[in-house]
Amino acid sequence: MSTQGLLRDAPEVAFEVVNRVAIVTLDRPHALNALSHGMIALLADIFAQCAANDSIVAVVLRGAGDKAFCAGGDVRKLYHAARNDPLHETPWLKFFIDEYRLDFTVHRFAKPVIALMDGIVMGGGMGLAQGAALRIATERTRMAMPETRIGLLPDVGATHFLRVLPRDLALYVGLTGARLLGADARRVGLADECVPSTWLRGFIERLESIRWDDEQDALAQLKRVFVPSANIERHAPLDDIRAQIKRHFAVPATGGVERIAASLATDESDWARATLALLESHSPTMLEVTYHALLRGRQMSLSDCFRMELGVVYRAIDDGDFVEGVRALIIDKDERPRFAPTTLAQVRAERVQHFLSSPWRKEMHPLADLCA
């Protein structure tokens, strides 16, 4: 493989330039390329370099190994940071601030960003990929926003990017953390193309063959590199349950998750029972908060969505269910989180509003400088 320059080869993030295209690799395969704070800082620096370098025409984001693009943020480190924060100095908050700034940068980047969403794409991985100009899924893609399972809400811009889905489908994906395959992602608008994973193996050679011209459209040129003339068009499994999702999740704006659960309880199908059991295993408070945040996000700007999400995450970690959810599902793995309250019926409207009300005045918000 020939390159025009190796600008950085740092631990956990690799950066090289091939024929004027920056290739950025999340290089933490043992952890499914989950994002550490150090990786986020490196990525922010790399994007700044790419923005300033006129010889670079585009950026490709990919994950090392054959299992994941990015499985999310480093939840274990966040858990320990939150547990060891007796004075409420919130050192963990900087992780989210920097992550959201990075995601916002990808969404607003002036040069085309291509995300190769091969393998697992969850949480923070979705935050990086969904801002890309060209999102490539494969038959190995497993995409999800499973945050309510550990006492958070779908963040990293999810309250904004999930609005490309019909409301009922956005609620289903955001509340349950359901996994979407590559064909599903393309069908619902969370991927632009779904290609064979084998096609991506040879993209470096195809990149090298591009002859750049100032009059050429860089994104159009890159589509020919990453999208074969004959795409795989496999059946999207989501189609099989689409009618059931619409039946149970298309509830009035005032219905809440309790109404969704009640609707599912009237359906004796295996899918409905499994979906209800899934909801009942997640944080009741964060289910209701997520429901309202997703609906609000459909009418909000990207920057306002990030600001809303940061407020919710701050409260979820500071005095919500996050620490207990991570303990039960990731640290101790007893699968028995003691969420408070324990049922949807016990969640008070005032508590939901507490999470949705930012703890910062607008001008003092940590993300106040994000462009609207």
UniProtKB/TrEMBL annotation:
User: Which Pfam families does its entry note?
Assistant: ECH_2
Q: What is its EC number?
A: 3.1.2.4
Q: Which GO terms describe its biological process?
A: L-valine catabolic process
Gene Ontology MF: a single term: 3-hydroxyisobutyryl-CoA hydrolase activity
The protein's matches in Gene3D superfamilies, at most eight in alphabetical order, are given as: 2-enoyl-CoA Hydratase, Chain A, domain 1
Catalytic activity field? 3-hydroxy-2-methylpropanoyl-CoA + H2O = 3-hydroxy-2-methylpropanoate + CoA + H(+)
Look up and give the organism this protein is from.
Answer: Caballeronia glebae
User: Is Metal-binding given among the entry's keywords?
Assistant: no
* Residue span, Enoyl-CoA hydratase/isomerase domain: 22-356
| Alphabetical UniProt keywords | Hydrolase
Instruction: Quote the InterPro entries the UniProt record gives.
Output: ClpP/crotonase-like_dom_sf, ECH_dom, HIBYL-CoA-H
Protein name in UniProt: 3-hydroxyisobutyryl-CoA hydrolase
Respond yes or no to whether keyword Hydrolase is given for this record.
yes
